[in-house]
Predict the structure.
Amino acid sequence: MYEEISQYVRQLIAESSPSRTAWNIEKVRQGQPASWNYIDGCMMTALLSLSEITGEKAFFDFVESFIDSFVAQDGAVRTFEAEKHTLDDINEGRVLFPLYEKTGKEKYRLAADLLYRSLSGQPRTSEGNFWHKEIYPHQVWLDGVYMAMPFLALYGKTFGANVEEDIASQLRVIQARMRDPRTGLYYHGYDVTRQAFWANPETGCSGNFWLRALGWFSVALADLGEILPSGKARDTVTAIFADLMRSLLPFADPATGMYYQVVDQGARPGNYLESSGSSMIAYAMMKGARLGILPPEFSLRGKKTFEGIFSTCLSFSQDRMHMDHICLVAGLGPESDRRRDGSYAYYISEPVVQDDAKGVAPFLLSYTEILRL
């Protein structure tokens, strides 16, 4: 039924190289060459998962070639700037672990060490959480959980670093500060100082529930549930994960199983069913059920969402498939960009594109869960 998906991936790979990827729409639009970044990192993670489940070596080979072009023999990572202290740039490092395991190349271990040292020096809030970026001081974003925590957990699992309680502690703070008790949903961002122009002066939280932020958070929790060893830290993660998945259910579109760009606002004028965050939630629900963290019925809910995306957001023309309804980007601030204020009007104003890895990669991850059923 889904044969077109693998062909779509092959087409994207054929149009990509280590110097330019077809799925990084931000860079394509700006005419910039490839760099070490989370967008390509998401796609590398998806390609590795797809290679594992389908046995298609070409997917693995592309990832190895791509990462090889950035990682030097001494572990230095081309274009990575540790001094910027941005969690986004940690994400691509998670593919270093399976590459190291399968190829034995020492440079992958050295690169993982480099990123781990950088993350160890990441500024933290007064409550112990990583700043999302140096340019966003004292701020915690849901996005950053996905960007940093699976890498940190994989490093601990692979090289024996004691990271589990740090991960759990940061997640407990996020649950305490960013979870809305009425809906069970999480706000996009939180400023400990409550000084950011977008922050609620009493809670420090941003004003709305952005779907992809919740999607990043969901995927991170599902992946951590697989990576972390049994114990108190994993128990913390799985409890937060199960609560969030239950909280999301009432907001699914009944017809498609998809979710809205601003999750709790339904068919309000301007709101739309968004494919990247919906793919992330589909993946998280199916994976959570497969791991036994969630009840079996969540597998069916995730599958319905996947099928809704497939029927609603995939288009076919001249033997070519495209994925639509992808929010290109959204964020909070900085001070110099007050348009990004976390309002409803802001989230629905960002460009909607097709074939961007922020949507394609999680859709492919959800597809790997379909293949495991």
Q: What stands out?
A: The chain has a mean pLDDT of 97. The domain at 3-372 is CATH 1.50.10.10 (Glycosyltransferase).
